[in-house]
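Wait, mind explaining this?

_____
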Amino acid sequence: MIYTDGSSMGNPGPGGYGAVLMYGGHRKEISAGYMLTTNNRMELMAVIRALGKINQRGIPVEVYTDSQYVCNAIEKGWLFGWKKKGWTKVKNVDLWKEFLPLYDIFKPKFIWVKGHAGNKENERCDQLATAAAAASDKKTDFGYLEVLKKDGNNLL
């Protein structure tokens, strides 16, 4: 089981993701912060980084997320339509393209959970994401900077 959450202080603004991975009796928490990004990017980044931590193939994977954006894109098949149509007018294409090979490996089932509703693991992911967004050692979200450059925006 994987729980994920993303956070952005401003949208765009400093952001972070958090994830809790559980298998058997093992538990691993991961998080990272970024200087300038969006909430949806962090929601998706949490999933990508968590799936990337799984070493064992062939096990069932469930991803619990409070992001309807992420959950619906997969469970309602939007992602596969976006790919088929050549990614026209799709945001976060760089991350979706990074996600697809992981999806092909694990075929995770996505389950939406209501955020800030008392789900212990979702609340922990929120804490991890928020702390990462507030930390001083944030990374650069180069994918987001490329979007800004392409759109002619200069928020830096």
In short: The two ends are 37 Å apart (CA to CA). The mean pLDDT is 95.
